[in-house]
């Protein structure tokens, strides 16, 4: 019982102290980064799901920008997730996917470039509504 009381008091002192050891500060920052990154990945996935659900012609750029915007607003971890995660498969960037999308899918290199432009716009804090097509339901 005394051990648990000592652990609780030590934890309270460490958490309440403004002069936390550097290692504790580093662990807290790392934990926040991971939390933001997971949240950013969730934001990107939610935008992807909404894009699939909406199935609205010409809205993909809006959802690219919105997913990246929401992720980047979470903080450094979310911004990192927005840079690392690529559309449309939410997998790490690969040249093979880019080549497939540019050549085989019929969308072309220009569409891929515009997708990446929308991603960068959202990541930099630009308003995703710039890419919002007229007629897209308010739900999105």
UniProtKB/TrEMBL annotation:
Entry annotated with the keyword Kinase: no
Pfam families from the UniProt entry: SAA
Cellular component terms per the entry's GO annotation: high-density lipoprotein particle
Keyword RNA-binding: no
SMART domains for the chain: SAA (SM00197)
A biological-process GO annotation: acute-phase response
Signal peptide stretch: 1-18
Biased composition (Basic residues): 131-140
UniProt entry keywords in alphabetical sequence: Acute phase, HDL, Signal
Stretches the record annotates as Disordered: 98-140
Family to which the UniProt record says this protein belongs: Belongs to the SAA family.
Biological role: Major acute phase reactant. Apolipoprotein of the HDL complex.
UniProt-recorded name of the protein: Serum amyloid A protein
Name of the gene: Saa
């Amino acid at each position: 019982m005394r051990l648990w009381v000592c652990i609780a008091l030590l934890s309270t002192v460490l958490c309440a102290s403004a002069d936390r050891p550097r290692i504790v500060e580093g662990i807290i920052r790392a934990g926040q980064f991971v939390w933001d990154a997971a949240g950013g990945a969730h934001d990107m996935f939610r935008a992807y799901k909404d894009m699939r659900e909406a199935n609205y012609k010409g809205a993909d750029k809006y959802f690219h920008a919105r997913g990246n915007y929401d992720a980047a607003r979470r903080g450094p971890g979310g911004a990192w997730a927005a840079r690392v995660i690529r559309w449309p498969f939410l997998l790490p960037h690969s040249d093979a996917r880019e080549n497939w999308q540019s050549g085989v899918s019929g969308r072309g290199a220009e569409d891929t470039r515009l997708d990446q432009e929308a991603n960068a716009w959202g990541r930099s804090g630009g308003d995703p509504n710039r890419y919002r097509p007229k007629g897209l339901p308010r739900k999105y």
